Amino acid sequence: MQYHLEQGLIPATAIIRRRQRQPYVLQDAILAVGKLGSAAHIELLTPLLSDAHLVGNPFANRPGEQRSGPQVRDVALAVIIHLSGEHPQDYGFASIQPDPVRLFQIHTMGFASDQQRLAAHQKWQQRASLPAPQGPGEHAAGREPLSSMEGIKD
């Protein structure tokens, strides 16, 4: 992923298609598809929206703040939203942070509660029933995608 080689999609998509897989490996495959893929990969990721396996530890930004650790379905949702040209923050990913190598920092992809997670997934389901996402290079409300990191060198 670091060098933006599209060939990285081959092993990433193979991992996602496998039935038996470890969540920590799957998270990297999903993020690789998000970084190297396109809206055409949304269909591949959609079945993962029901996978509740934990992929990381909870991360709190402030003392006393509790978070629900990121799950496979959260990583898949954030990447699907990204591939559709929208922003995960608009779906409730309040703490999500970009990563110049992996697209997003995994520990920032969780939710403060299961209710917030459910709301984010329901909002996407409502959005998914609307017309198809915009084409490549066109982003919702004229905003650049979150992973656009001008000036950052790998």
* Radius of gyration over all CA atoms, rounded: 15 Å
List the uncertain runs.
133-154
SSE series: HHHHEEH
Structural class category: mainly alpha
Distance linking N and C termini: 10 Å
The description of the largest β-sheet is:
2 strands, antiparallel
Overall morphology: globular
Neighbour order of strands in the largest sheet: 1-2
Number of strands: 2
Q: Estimate the strand proportion.
A: under 5%
Count of individual helical segments: 5
Count of folded domains:
1
Mean pLDDT: 80
The percentage helix is 25-40%
How would you explain this protein's 3D organization?
With 154 residues, the protein is an all-alpha fold. The chain is 35% helix and 3% strand. Strands 1-2 form a two-stranded antiparallel sheet. The radius of gyration is 15 Å and the shape is globular.
Task: For the structure shown, list the relevant keywords.
154 residues; mainly alpha; two-stranded antiparallel sheet; 5 helices; 2 strands; 35% helix; 3% strand; disordered C terminus
Report a brief summary of the structure:
This protein has 154 residues and is mostly helical. The chain is built from five helices and two strands; from the N terminus they run ααααββα.
Q: How would you summarize the topology of this molecule?
A:
Blueprint: H1 9-17, H2 23-36, H3 42-45, H4 72-83, E1 98-99, E2 103-104, H5 114-128
Antiparallel strand pairs: 1-2
Helix pairs in contact: 1-2, 2-4
